[in-house]
């Protein structure tokens, strides 16, 4: 299917690896020029070179921490007039509800709620003026089904979800859509680090920890960054203009719910 976005320009934050990279690659495959970001420049430059070589699109890179205001300024300055914004950042650490301080919550809110809100606030006016835009926020299955050890993530992402629900309806009249894409367990570095946590906690090896987590998913496997990216690219396509303020869950059926 032609996604109808060849020649468009996208900013994809936190995109040197994992789900962000899956989204960047899928957009590049659809002919979209990219601005990519991560803190570490080695993986970022390698990913950008690979995408340029494979898809022939233009890719600019900005190595910075997107959860800081200076980082947001840097990516937005490099991005300029974008048609597509995909927001992503690392997830907060796991822990216990008894451990989290006010500072821990402020850090989580900054990273996973206020950073995407800041990027949207800066990018939406231009999209609205030009009459076309797509925003996809990478959030988490945890907004539909809480992950107790990830209380910081549950909280911050719920706040972002509420913001998107209202804002998406305010910008939709201008041809701009905002939606969230909710990953369940996907095979990325983040999943491996969570497997390691399960392995240490339950005294089992990492393969067994992965097998136990896979057994909780009806699809009996982790998702892949490329299938996640393909869904993201569709949500950024011309075909998704009637999708407004939705929370699209990609979890292999793990959330046991009718709606
Ligand atoms: P990942 O494989 O660890 O990749 C994270 C990417 O983000 C890397 O490119 C990393 O590069 C970059 N990054 C992290 N923090 C950043 C920052 N402050 N500024 C700029 N770039 C940053 O993670 P993932 O699995 O793709 O997860 C992406 C998001 O989805 C996370 O928020 C995660 O919590 C959420 N999620 C993932 C899963 C899953 O199963 N994978 C499930 C639910 C939710 P640098 O380290 O070089 O910055």
From TrEMBL:
UniProt-listed Enzyme Commission number(s)? 1.1.1.100
* Record keywords: Oxidoreductase
Source domain of life is: Bacteria
One of the Pfam families matching this protein, by short name: adh_short_C2
GO molecular function terms listed in the Swiss-Prot or TrEMBL record: 3-oxoacyl-[acyl-carrier-protein] reductase (NADPH) activity
**What's the top EC group for this one?**
oxidoreductase
* Similarity comment: family membership: Belongs to the short-chain dehydrogenases/reductases (SDR) family.
What is the official name of this protein in its record?
Short-chain dehydrogenasereductase
Highest classification ranks of the organism: Bacteria, Pseudomonadati, Pseudomonadota, Alphaproteobacteria, Rhodobacterales
